[in-house]
Amino acid sequence: MDYKKVIAHLRKRIISQDEAIDRIEEALMIAEAGLNEPDKPLCVLLFLGPTGVGKTETVKALAEAIHGEPGAYCRIDMSGLSERHYAASFSGSPPGYIGSKENNTILDKNKIEGRFGKPGILLLDEIEKAHPMVHQTLLHIFDNALLRLASGTEEIRFTNTIIIMTSNVGSEALKAIAEHQEAMRNASEGSTIDWEFSRKQIAMEALERTFKPEFINRIDGIVVFKWLTRNDLMKILNIQLEDLNRKLKRYHSFHAELTQGAKEFLIEKGFDLKYGARPLKRAIRQYLHQPLARLIIEEIIPRNSKVVVDNAGEQLKFEVVSPKTDSLDSEPTVLELKR
Description:
Elements: H1 3-13, H2 18-32, E1 43-48, H3 55-67, E2 74-77, H4 88-91, H5 109-113, E3 120-125, H6 132-144, E4 146-148, E5 155-157, E6 161-167, H7 171-186, H8 195-210, H9 213-216, E7 221-224, H10 230-252, E8 255-258, H11 260-270, H12 278-297, E9 306-311, E10 316-321, H13 323-328, E11 333-335
Parallel strand pairs: 1-6, 1-7, 2-3, 3-6, 8-9
Antiparallel strand pairs: 4-5, 9-10, 10-11
Helix pairs in contact: 1-2, 1-3, 7-8, 10-11, 11-12
């Protein structure tokens, strides 16, 4: 694994979250140099911030960069472990209980342990929703990088594992900070407020109210993800369009070209400070993917052509430009889709 290529991939895919990428880069550099502690995970990171700002997307991009697949990581939804007895779901049923001799665990051993030169990845999503007893089980993993299953016949090692936790604690207070900052920016008012310091202070206060000090003390890095601006969404939109065109060229032999007006239309429909990039993805699906799917199914688009997408007011309009039409500089075919 070339850690520089991994980080380059992350910087291309993840927008405005440089601190998270820097933390991952530190862990990969230490691991590649062989300086990591032999009885600890490669790193334990906590990603804080609201929904839709790229916390899980960062993990997917990391898995894709290391293993070639965005789903090549073990994800545990911690909101499903809110009761005390769910702590046993990590190591299996204790002796004397049904299934105690079986190696039942919610953890994927292969995805966690990885392989030589390619670390495994464990995502603990919404860690704050798990029961405190589950947190205690995690402390043992953070300290020893080892989990022995209740059967006694198998164990999972975390010495080659990047552990990433996500949490939404403090999101409402962080949203208020972001809205205040946006309002002052729009009003062009000068400010001596250190927004970065305020954002991190609020996050840490929320963290200390939620978790015990010994749990926080086991975390190697705490990253507060930034709210996404309209400029950030434009960059994310361009990444989404690159992904779309790869699919269109591979499976249907044409590509789509969006005008600046079409892009601004999607940003306007998809911008919501509270929900991050998710409304944008819904807007892309509604106004771009669905009409394109209809054109594909109705076999309207010739091979090796392009579809020019422009703003038509309350929707997007699609113009098919065939290779012959393009070369002769003729009028393209304008398609009006009935919705």
